[in-house]
Amino acid sequence: MKKLMILALAALAASSLQAQKLVIKGSDTLGAKLVPILSEEYKAMHPGVSFEIAAEGSTTGIAAIIDATAQIGMASRRAKPTEMSAAQAKGVSMKPTIVAFDGIAVIVNAGNPISELSKRQIEQIFTGDVTDWSSVGGPAGTISIYTRNTSSGTYSDFKDLAMKKRDYASSSQKMAGHEQIVAEVAKNPNGIGYVGLAFLNEPGIKVVSIDGGLPNKESVHAKKYPYARPTFFYTNGEPQGEAAKFIDFVLSDEGQKIAEAQGFVPLR
Amino acid sequence: MFSIKPKWMALLASISLAISPVFAGDSGALLDALVRKGILTDQEAEDLRADLSRDSQAFVMASVSGGKVTNSLALSGRMQMQYVGLSTDQNVAAANQFFLRRIYFGVKAGVGADWSANLNYDFSGGNFDKAFMEWSGYAGATPLALDFGLRKVNLGYEETTSSGSLKAIERSPVTRFFVEPNNGRRLGAASYRIGVYADLGDANARKGKTSGFFAGAAVTNPQRTETFGDAGVDGSKSAGGAGYNKPAYWADAGYSSAFSGGKLKVGAAVGFLPDQGGPSNSNIGKGYDMSVYSIYADLTMGNFNLAGEYLAATVDSGAGVGKDAEPSGYWIQPSFALGEKFEFVVRYSSVDADGRGVKISDGVRSSPAAKTGQKLEELYAGISYFIVPNGMKFQVGYTDSKLSNGNSENGSGIRSQFQIDF
Questions:
Q1: Structural domain boundaries of chain A?
Q2: Nearest chain A Cα to B207, which residue?
Q3: Rounded Cα–Cα distance for residues A96 and B358 (Å)
Q4: What's domain A15-101+230-261's superfamily in CATH?
Q5: How far is residue A250 CA from its own chain's centroid?
Q6: Per-residue confidence (pLDDT) for residue B231, from 0 to 100
């Protein structure tokens, strides 16, 4: 009986050693849809691997690598100098791997007659310099601005790419995820917001062209769409073990096809 | 770890030479151009960016830091020049002069992963506006900041609004009566203190920039003690002396909400200052306590803003030994922004000193005053012209003040200010 118990415990220990768990935290852009789908595909090929995915913003992903609470940190923005130095202070070497490209699409309510805005007008709207649609060629109505929250990489990317790093309008409403922005803009005729390309296939919204250009695979690859950006997996140094294998899968043709199917722009 | 190939080594060397006096972020345009020309892949550029960022951090540490773990350094400043033309209907000299109201120079240094040092010195007033060390982290999932040193306590909405953002140039008579140093009439019941501070919640919610709850608590010296040195052999250099040995306790809480077309912020604060009461500032340390309270609200709807605050206090023997005082007051301030260049503001404030006494000069900065009454009212109407939004502005306004209840005195005049933030 005693031997049986020891054998059982040994088998349990062996099985738990075999079960690899990948903890992935960070960007809502990547973590809301794409990475869960990639992880399901990967699990189908590697049954012993499990995933814990938390999509609460790029800041949390980068912090998770610095604090060693995740093997992969998802980010839709680059690590800031202060984060790089915080990592250095803890002996962590932040290694970015580009996993796909994205364009930040500016969306308005489907009933809004506005279909094109200039980069200058986008800056004026999101900083609050302009507060009424009539100032940018639309019908009169107070503009309602929906943005991501401050832990989001998209929040800071948009500030850098579209707002000359100025502050958002104080009236802007900060949402926990892209899906919430889509939902708010879809029900508010005066709403405007921005989302990653993966979140555009929803009713009630439409994409605004920026200086005549729309975000798509061609304009992002050609670096012509002004609000295009890479998305990243951050690791502590070169990825190791199961994390390296998962990243290889994401970068493979199969992984990139999944990314494209989810609305991202593939690397190749 | 990134291994340097010959092509990259040449690039790294040239980029490093180009950016050595500045930060790695400035190399971004060059890297982008190299990617566009097909010389680097996106991933190669990204690896270079990360390496350059690490190198630039080492450069900053070696070049501008006294401490080896300093990882960021931010400088800031503010200059304000005022003109006042203020007088009263009594036989007292008017104020008619230019002066430099504030000359701020500030430094914030990030140290390690979670700590920073914050200094801001006012060369005009000859004292620190802030001097504290801060730890920033989380209590569970809630942001938490712990400050150690000199800063303002979280009491008085107008008082804790940045001096660069005051729509009526100076703070209201009620704010000044409650928070400015105790002169026997004013209470000296908030503002700058040395102590330990805990601020819970998103800092942007406290600033009204995002929705959320915020709260704070602090234990501080009971008054602003200007002496930063030790007590000295005989105690003569003590940071306040025996009257200042009982710490003051502070707490506040509030909520900010952003909604379609506007935002609302509400909050309340309380402070308890043992030994700081009494009928005059020579009675400090004699067992008379003081408590102070504040509630406030700030509503923005489109270009319209309405803010206001009610302040009250109980001062043991504040109106004479054995006669407690309960001063109170409020201010209310509607304003309207006309585009991004102009903002019009009106502010009414009223102070009831409840037997403690108040002079026009206690409430209206730089104003002359002759008499002491029990009620002070002020009406300010002015305009701000934003020459460079968020950077440079000119403000001018007319102030009309009235002292009553006991003695009467009427004051009026012009105040203007030119300000640059950098």
A1: 15-101+230-261, 102-221
A2: A170
A3: 63
A4: Periplasmic binding protein-like II (3.40.190.10)
A5: 15
A6: 44
Q: Which residues of A touch B335 (CB under 8 A)?
A: none
First to last CA, chain A: 59
Is B50 in contact with A232 (Cβ distance < 8 A)?
A: no
The answer to whether residue B27 scores a pLDDT higher than 80 is no
Please count the structural domains in chain B: 2
Its pTM stands at 0.63
Whether residue B171 is found in the same domain as residue B291: yes
Q: What percent of chain B has pLDDT over 70?
A: 86
CATH architecture of the domain formed by A102-221: 3-Layer(aba) Sandwich (3.40)
Please, what is the average pLDDT of chain B? 87
Q: Tell me which residues of chain A have a C-beta less than 8 Å from any C-beta of chain B.
A: 66, 78-79, 81-82, 84-86, 88-90, 93-98, 129, 131, 142, 144, 149-150, 166-168, 170-174, 188, 190, 223, 230, 232, 237-238, 267
Pair B181, B187: CB distance under 8 Å: no
**pLDDT attached to residue B57:** 61
- Nearest by CB to A142, from B112, B210, B261: name it: B261
Output the pLDDT for position B307. Answer: 98
**What CATH number has the domain bearing residue B239?**
2.40.160.10
CB of B24 closer than 8 Å to CB of A85? no
A81 contacts on B by Cβ (under 8 Å): 23-25, 53, 56-57, 71-72
pLDDT tens figures, B194-223: 999 999 998 888 988 778 899 999 999 998
pLDDT tens figures, A165-187: 888 988 889 898 899 999 999 99
Q: Give the E-state strand segments of B155-208 in sequence order.
A: 192-201
Please write the tens of the pLDDT for every residue from B244-263: 889 999 999 999 987 767 88
A252 has a pLDDT exceeding 60: yes
Residues of A in contact with B210 (CB under 8 A): 149-150, 174
pLDDT at B162 over 50: yes
Q: Say what the ipTM of the complex is.
A: 0.77
Co-location of B55 and B101 in the same domain: no
| B306 lies in the same domain as B273 | yes
Q: Are residues B36 and B84 in the same domain?
A: no
The answer to whether A15-101+230-261 and A102-221 have equal CATH topology is: yes
Q: Rounded to an integer, what distance in angstroms lies between the CA atom of residue B417 and that of residue B420?
A: 10
> Over 50: is that where the pLDDT of B230 sits?
no
A250: chain B residues, CB-CB within 8 Å: none
The two beta strands, B328-338 and B342-352, are antiparallel
The single-letter DSSP state of residue A80 is P
Q: Which residues in chain A are contacts of B202 at CB distance < 8 A?
A: 150
DSSP, residue by residue, B257-295:
EEETTEEEEEEEEEEEETT--SSSGGGTTSS--EEEEEE
